[in-house]
Design a protein that fits this description.
Alkaline Phosphatase, subunit A, 3 domains, eleven-stranded mixed β-sheet, Gyrase A, domain 2, 16% strand, alpha+beta, globular, 34% helix
Length: 705
C-alpha cells in the first residue's frame, strides 16, 4: 500500500449480465486530441491514453469461496475481457513494493536503473557509518527525501540512475510529442509531500513554502498529488498558474517546458472555474478538513481518482496516469485491514465497481472509447493475506459475510530475536518489511566477519506463529550484494545499498525494536494484514489489462510471461513514441495486432517473440534465473564452513553467473530495442542462438542452486 459456486455468486454480484453485455460501443462523436499531440502509429489514431495502476487489487482469489477483487468489479473486468486482453501471468520486480513496482511500470526500468529498488522507504549511510531513513515517494528531481535533517549527507537524487544522475522522467516522451501529461497521484510524477518537494519545486522562500509551514494540511490539498506536465504551447496549461518543469539530466534535453503542480493550479485549468473537481459519485473532492483539492493518497479511491482522470480528459489533457488506492484497507477516520469476504471489504469493492461503471459511461458520452483510446490497467503487486480461517466455514462474502478471529501480519523484532536467540548485538538498522533490508553500522563489506556472522545468525532465527502455532524460520531467502545485483537491487548510489536483504516467510513483517524480548518480539499487528515486498508467487504474480486500437481481443489469457518493465515499451510501440534510453522490457507483440506494430518489427515478429521470451526468463527479477541464483545465494550465505569456503565459492559462482547474465541480457535487450524502435534487423537464426544461450545459462544457474 502507499501506506466455486460461480453461477450463484455471479448472479449475486451482477456478473452474469455484465459479462454477457455488449462491448463498449464505438464513439459517436468526432472527439479529436489536441492539435499537435502526435500519438498515432501503425494506422491507428490514438486520441487518448488512460493508464490506471491499482494498489494491491487482485485478479485471482485469496479465498477459493470468495470472488476476487476484479470479480467483484464486473464493470472493469468485463470492459477488459470484452474489449482487449487481460493477462494473469504478469509479474513484479523485487522488492515487490508500491514504490518500486509503480516506478518500474512508469519507466520500463528495474530499480537498479531508476533508483528505488528498496521501497517504500530506504536507508542511506552517513559519514559516521550509521544510517538514516528516506522516503521513496518524492518528486522526480528531488534529492534524498529525508526531512529529519536540513541537508542529507547523501547528495544523490531520489530517482538515481546507474551514472548517479537523475533517471529519465516518464512524461517527457509525451510532452515532447505535443501531449499534456496528467498525473493523478502517479508515483513521483507529482509532489509527494509538503516538505522537501515544496522546497525543490517552488523554492524555500516561496509563498508555497510559507503556506506549507503555516498550514501543512491546506498545502497538501493545494500542491500534493495532482499535476499536469505541459506540452509546449498547451492550451490547457495556459488556463492555470504554471511553474518551470525542470529536468536538467533528461537525455536529449528538456528546456522550455512548464507544469501545473497541485490542485490549486490544476483545478482552475480543467474545471472551468468550479471550486473543486467532483468524484464519479458527484461529490466535491476535498481533504478531511473540507479543503478542495488533493484528499490524501489513501483517499485516492476509485471514485476520486477516476473523477480526476475524467475531468482532465474532458478538459483536453489527452494522456493521464493515475493511482488508485487499495480496497482491502479501511480509508478515512477508521483504520485497519479486512480479510477476504468481510462486509466492509465487499462494500468497498462495490463502491469501486460503481465508480468504474460511471466512469466508462461518462467517457463514452465524451467519445472516449476503445476505438480511439489506449487503456492500460494493472496493479502494483499482489499481496499475501495474513489471518486465520474465516467464519462461518464456506462463507463467500457476497451472500454470507466472512469474519476473522485472527487477522494481521506477524511482527518480528529482529533486534530482540537476534540478541535472545543468537547472542548477536551488532549495531544495525533495518528497513522494516516482509522483505527487510539490513544495514550494519560501519557499512562492512560482504565478506567481513561481522557481516557473515550476522547473516548466519539471522538465517537461524525462528518464531512461533501466533496464527498457526507452528515454529517458523523467519527468513526464507537471503540476498547479499552479489545476489542483489542479479535481482536489479543495487542502484547508482552506493550509500543506499543494504548490507543484505532477507525475504521472510510472507506471514512476517520484520522490524528492529528493543534489544530484548521483555516485550513480545513476535505478535500480531492487526492494522495490516496484507504483506508484500517478498519473494513469493502470491505476491509477485499480478495482472495487466490492455484495451484500444491495435490490441488483440484475447480476453482472459496467461499465454505470455511478462513483468512491469514491459508495459512502457508496449505502450510506446503502439503510440509511435520512443524513449531516448533502452528499456529493460520488451514489446508484448503477442497481445497486439500485427498491423499495429512498428514497421520494422512487424516483419520479424516471430524472431522477436522467441528472443523476448528467453530474455525475460533470464533477466527478470522474479524469473527462473533469478529464482535459481536466490536459492543458491541463500544456501551460501547461511553456510558455516572453515575459512568460510562454502560462502566464498558460492559468491564466486554467483558473481560469474551474474556477469554472464548481464553480458548476454545486454545483447538481447539491445537487439529487442533496435527491432522495436530503431529499424534494426533481427534474424531468426540470431534470435534462436541467443535464446539457446539464455536457456543454457538458466540451466547452469539451476544446477548451481
Amino acid at each position: 500500500m502507499r501506506k466455486r459456486r460461480v453461477t450463484a455468486l455471479a448472479l449475486a454480484l451482477g456478473l452474469a449480465s455484465a459479462l454477457a453485455g455488449p462491448a463498449v460501443a464505438a464513439d459517436t462523436e468526432h472527439h479529436r486530441h489536441p492539435t499537435g499531440c502526435q500519438i498515432s502509429a501503425g494506422g491507428s489514431d490514438f486520441r487518448h491514453v488512460i493508464y490506471l495502476q491499482f494498489d494491491n487489487v487482485h485478479l485471482t482469489r485469496d479465498n477459493p469461496n470468495v470472488p476476487s477483487d476484479l470479480e467483484q468489479m464486473p464493470h472493469l473486468l468485463s470492459f477488459l475481457q470484452e474489449n482487449g486482453t487481460l493477462s494473469g501471468d504478469h509479474h513484479t520486480p523485487l522488492i515487490a513494493h508500491t514504490g518500486n513496482d509503480i516506478l518500474t511500470s512508469l519507466t520500463g526500468l528495474y530499480g537498479d536503473r531508476h533508483g528505488q529498488a528498496v521501497s517504500n522507504s530506504y536507508r542511506y549511510y552517513k559519514p559516521d557509518g550509521t544510517t538514516n531513513s528516506a522516503g521513496s515517494f518524492a518528486y522526480w528531481t528531488d534529492g534524498v527525501a529525508d526531512a529529519s535533517v536540513p541537508a542529507p549527507a547523501d547528495a544523490a537524487p531520489t530517482m538515481v540512475g546507474p551514472d548517479g544522475r537523475n533517471a529519465p522522467a516518464p512524461w517527457a516522451a509525451y510532452t515532447k510529442a505535443g501531449c499534456d501529461f496528467g498525473a493523478v497521484s502517479a508515483a513521483n510524477t507529482i509532489l509527494e509531500n509538503t516538505t522537501v518537494d515544496i522546497t525543490k519545486v517552488f523554492g524555500a522562500a516561496s509563498p508555497e513554502a510559507a503556506e506549507a509551514k503555516a498550514d501543512p494540511a491546506r498545502a497538501q490539498a493545494d500542491y500534493v498529488g495532482i499535476g499536469v506536465h505541459c506540452a509546449q504551447h498547451s492550451a490547457v496549461c495556459a488556463k492555470g498558474a504554471t511553474s518551470p518543469d525542470l529536468l536538467p539530466d533528461e537525455p536529449g534535453g528538456y528546456q522550455g517546458y512548464r507544469a501545473l503542480y497541485g490542485a490549486k493550479a490544476v483545478d482552475p485549468a480543467i474545471t472551468g472555474g468550479a471550486a473543486a473537481v467532483t468524484s464519479t459519485a458527484g461529490k466535491a473532492i476535498t481533504d478531511p478538513k473540507g479543503n478542495p483539492g488533493f484528499p490524501g493518497f489513501d483517499a485516492m479511491t476509485a471514485d476520486n481518482s477516476l473523477g480526476y482522470v475524467a475531468q482532465m480528459q474532458e478538459a483536453g489533457v489527452p494522456v493521464t496516469y493515475a493511482y488508485i488506492s487499495d480496497a482491502h484497507d479501511q480509508h478515512g477516520p477508521t483504520s485497519g485491514a479486512w480479510g477476504p469476504g468481510e462486509a466492509g471489504y465487499v462494500q468497498q469493492l462495490k463502491s469501486y465497481d460503481d465508480a468504474f461503471g460511471t466512469f466508462f459511461q461518462r467517457l463514452r458520452r465524451d467519445g472516449i472509447t476503445p476505438s480511439n483510446t489506449l487503456f492500460v490497467v494493472t496493479a502494483d503487486e499482489n499481496d499475501h493475506f495474513v489471518g486465520g480461517a474465516p467464519s462461518p466455514a464456506g462463507c463467500d462474502g457476497v451472500t454470507v459475510p466472512c469474519t476473522y478471529r485472527q487477522i494481521g501480519e506477524v511482527n518480528a523484532n529482529a533486534r530482540g530475536l537476534l540478541a535472545t536467540q543468537q547472542g548477536v548485538t551488532t549495531p544495525f538498522q533495518v528497513h522494516s518489511d516482509s522483505a527487510p533490508n539490513f544495514y550494519l553500522n560501519g557499512q562492512p563489506g560482504p565478506a567481513d566477519p561481522a557481516t557473515r556472522g550476522f547473516e548466519r545468525a539471522w538465517s537461524r532465527i525462528t518464531a512461533v506463529n501466533p496464527i498457526t502455532g507452528r515454529t517458523d524460520t523467519v527468513s526464507q531467502y537471503l540476498a547479499d550484494q552479489a545476489e542483489m545485483r542479479i535481482l536489479h537491487m543495487v542502484t547508482g548510489d552506493p550509500l543506499r545499498t543494504p548490507t543484505f536483504t532477507s525475504f521472510a516467510d510472507p506471514d512476517y513483517y520484520v522490524t528492529a525494536a528493543g534489544s530484548d524480548c521483555s516485550k513480545p518480539c513476535v505478535y500480531l499487528g492487526p492494522a495490516y494484514a496484507w504483506n508484500h515486498g517478498d519473494f513469493a508467487p502470491d505476491i509477485n504474480t499480478t495482472w495487466v489489462g490492455l484495451v484500444g486500437p491495435g490490441v488483440r481481443h484475447l480476453g482472459r489469457t496467461d499465454a505470455v510471461w511478462s513483468d512491469h518493465t514491459d508495459l512502457r515499451p508496449t505502450m510506446l510501440a503502439l503510440l509511435g513514441l520512443h524513449d531516448p534510453y533502452r528499456s529493460d522490457g520488451r514489446v508484448l507483440t503477442e497481445y497486439l495486432d500485427r498491423s499495429a506494430l512498428p514497421h520494422g518489427l512487424a516483419g520479424q515478429v516471430r524472431a522477436y517473440q522467441r528472443l523476448a521470451a528467453a530474455y525475460k526468463q533470464l533477466d527478470a527479477g522474479v524469473g527462473p534465473f533469478a529464482a535459481a541464483t536466490l536459492r543458491s545465494a541463500t544456501a551460501g550465505i547461511a553456510s558455516d564452513t572453515p575459512g568460510d569456503a562454502a560462502y566464498r565459492a558460492s559468491t564466486d559462482r554467483l558473481t560469474a553467473l551474474g556477469a554472464e547474465r548481464d553480458r548476454l541480457a545486454g545483447q538481447m535487450a539491445q537487439l529487442l530495442d533496435a527491432s522495436a524502435f530503431g529499424h534494426g534487423h533481427l534474424s531468426a537464426d540470431r534470435a534462436e542462438d541467443l535464446a539457446h544461450q539464455a536457456d543454457r545459462l538458466i540451466r547452469q544457474a539451476q544446477r548451481a542452486g
